[in-house]
Design brief:
The complex is a heterodimer of chains A (349) and B (294). The two termini of chain A are 41 Å apart. Helices cover 78% and strands 0% of the residues of chain A. Chain A is globular and about 60 Å long. Chain A has 14 helices and no strands. The model of chain A has no long low-confidence stretch (mean pLDDT 87). Chain B is of the alpha/beta class. Chain B is 32% helix and 24% strand. A 6-stranded mixed β-sheet of chain B has the order 6-7-8-3-9-10, sandwiched between helices. The chains are: A mainly alpha (349), B alpha/beta (294).
């Protein structure tokens, strides 16, 4: 202990920062390994089982022709989409929750994904569209919802409480639109829309992987620049102003990024519920980080989707569930816990 | 640390449609402790927020070094003027060192890179507020007084010459109130910092303020050193309360003794206390027995 107490105060500060950083790095490494393991297991399971070791070999280009076809062509797009969608949702949730300083503020609780769903269902049911067109309209829906939310919550700046309440209201409107559209639809079409609405990785291919990768590659540099500001926004508007942050502009920029992340994820796989909601708190908890914990949130989000999809595909034998069913089963109790705790401490969330 | 000047000229400011301050001009004395006092809702915090550029004036200007504060890039302002809001919020689980470190934001580039100068500024801020020992503790676990010292340390890490504090003692017990005020005096003496704060307690304002600004309905009623500002007339005017002013037995500064409507529980001063008797007699002689109409 003598060595840690020695040193100038400045060294003490540098050391305590290094300790905080070391913990995050350690956690990120462990979650990364767990994610890779889940990824390999999900690639090995299916109608034709492949040993995990052969999966790893194939991924590094050492496999034989047959396994290469099964792994790279049949199973890889789904597994990769799951991971990318989970990462995008985790990041989106981390940004929203830190901006609003409220664990309830995630894109699937405030209206963003509901808006995307309403537009997608409109595309499927009324316009009879499929594939990329549905995804495009889902993204448009998320953006329009977020934009109207921001405008309606605006009053000399956007307070987090107004944003959440307005968001929940708009979400309710979008949901009722969705229900209305479904009641008007023919049964087979409604069935197709319902599968989309639960969030599913069934039948995704390389085009989803490509779209998600492009979106994440474009958004990552912006996130790197703005995360720094997110840490200041967390201290509340007045303190942030005092520290010289352009609060409203930063918040708007961050909201746009978070909405885009949620939108591309929803467009690729439907509104997979509760991932954006549960991943960031878990990430903050395991890293003991007060900050947005972006990297950890992305990895935990990916892990949640990967594990859930593994369960959805294989837990019930031949019956394949949409992945959203599993994430819902995990996420809903956490929402109830959060609401119960907020009521008990009287903080209202 | 270079000196900076802060002033307001013909300032009108408020919230939404409600204007609180209509036409106020003030010059904050450089290198001194200025205390803004006044009744609730008189515009104390509004003035402080306008001086800190949190509120945009509807007319008039706030001048930092003679230039309109709205024209200077906000990040540059943050290197000259620091602010501690009334009830700042910290993210759950943040440690003391982490929070104080965020005070370096205006001094750092686009991508956060920690330099030796940052560490030294943080260490210095934490040493002078005496929170270095608790550097790795989460701030949710601290007492109110410790937490307030941590927030002051965060503002100090900004290394600004001017420090504005909105009611920094409000939620603290008496010991911690004096701890914070003593700390502010130290900071003022050591580095010639200009400090502006809003306080509720007039006796503390008299003790620790070089310069007092008494506000009523968004206008300055009196301004100057404590003995000029804290007179029986001014206090009655500003607070609508009859008081006696006597010298503070410890500091010699003016001390406010409220008369109130019921001087004691029984409606009269204790007969055994000669001081109270004298006070009651003089109150009666001056015709003060109830406060002015509010």
């Amino acid at each position: 202990m003598a060595t840690t107490t020695a040193g100038t105060p400045a060294q003490l500060i540098a050391r305590s920062r290094a300790v905080r950083r070391a913990r995050s790095v350690l956690v990120i490494t462990i979650v990364g390994i767990a994610l890779f393991a889940t990824f390999c297991v999900s690639l090995s399971l299916g109608d034709f089982k492949i040993p995990v070791i052969d999966v790893v070999k194939t991924l590094f280009g050492q496999g034989d022709k047959a396994t290469e076809f099964i792994v790279n062509q049949l199973r890889l797009p789904r597994a990769l989409t799951g991971i990318l969608v989970g990462a995008a949702l985790g990041l989106s949730g981390a940004i929203f929750q830190s901006i609003a300083r409220n664990p309830l503020a995630s894109p699937d609780i405030i209206g963003v994904t509901y808006g995307a769903s309403a537009f997608a269902v409109f595309a499927i049911v009324t316009l009879g569209l499929t594939g990329a067109a549905v995804s495009g309209l889902a993204i448009a829906g998320a953006l329009i919802t977020a934009f109207s939310m921001y405008i309606l919550a605006w009053r000399r700046g956007v307070s987090s409480y107004r944003l959440i309440l307005v968001g929940i209201g708009i979400g309710a409107i979008a949901m009722s639109v969705t229900s209305y559209l479904l009641t008007k639809a023919r049964v087979e079409i409604a069935q197709q829309a319902l599968v989309w609405l639960t969030g599913s990785l069934n039948g995704v291919d390389w085009s989803e992987v490509r779209a998600l990768t492009i979106a994440l590659v474009l958004l990552t540099p912006l996130m790197v620049l703005l995360v720094h500001r997110l840490r200041i926004l967390q201290l509340g508007d007045e303190t942030a102003y005092g520290l010289g942050l352009r609060v409203e502009r930063s918040r708007l920029g961050l909201i746009v990024i978070a909405v885009l992340l949620a939108a591309v994820a929803t467009a690729a796989a439907g509104p997979i519920g509760f991932v954006a909601f549960v991943a960031p708190p878990i990430a903050r908890w395991v890293t003991r980080s007060p900050g947005p914990a972006m990297i950890a949130s992305a990895l935990i989000g990916a892990l949640v989707v990967a594990l859930s999809d593994l369960l959805a595909q294989h837990a019930l034998g031949d019956t394949q569930l949409p992945v959203g069913v599993v994430t819902g089963v995990v996420g809903a109790p956490y929402l109830m816990f959060l609401l119960a705790r907020a009521n008990r401490v009287g903080s209202g969330g | 640390m270079t000196e900076h000047s802060l002033a307001a000229e013909n300032l009108a400011v408020g919230y939404d449609q409600r204007e609180i301050i209509h036409d106020l001009s003030v010059r904050i004395p450089v290198g001194k402790i200025t205390v803004i006092v006044g009744a609730n809702a008189c515009g104390k915090s509004t003035l402080l927020k306008a001086l800190a550029r949190l509120l945009k004036p509807s007319r008039g200007t706030v001048l930092l070094d003679g230039k309109s504060i709205q024209q200077i890039p906000t990040r540059e302002v943050a290197t000259k003027l620091g602010l501690l809001p009334q009830s700042p919020t910290a993210p759950e689980g943040i440690t003391v060192a982490d929070l104080v470190g965020r005070g370096r934001y205006p001094r750092q580039g686009w991508i956060r890179q920690w330099t030796k100068a940052d560490d030294e500024a943080i260490a210095d801020a934490m040493t002078s507020t005496d929170v270095l020992e608790i550097a790795d503790r989460p701030i949710d676990e601290l007492s109110g007084g410790q937490r307030q010292r941590v927030w002051i340390a965060m503002a100090l890490a900004q290394e600004t010459n001017i420090l504005l504090l909105d009611e920094p003692t409000t939620f603290l017990d008496l010991t911690h109130q004096f701890e914070v005020l003593d700390l502010l005096v130290d900071l003022n003496k050591r580095d010639d910092r200009t400090i502006v704060l809003v306080l509720h307690d007039l006796n503390q304002a008299c003790r620790f303020g070089d310069h007092l600004i008494a506000l009523k309905d968004g206008a300055i009623v009196a301004e100057g050193n404590p003995s000029e500002v804290i007179t029986e007339q001014v206090v009655e005017d500003v607070f609508g309360l009859a008081v006696k002013i006597i010298p503070d037995p410890v500091a010699g500064s003016p001390m406010v003794v409220p008369v109130g409507r019921h001087t004691t529980r029984n409606g009269q001063a204790s007969p055994d206390n000669p001081a109270a008797k004298a006070l009651a007699a003089s109150a009666a002689a001056n015709g003060i027995c109830r406060p002015a109409d509010r």
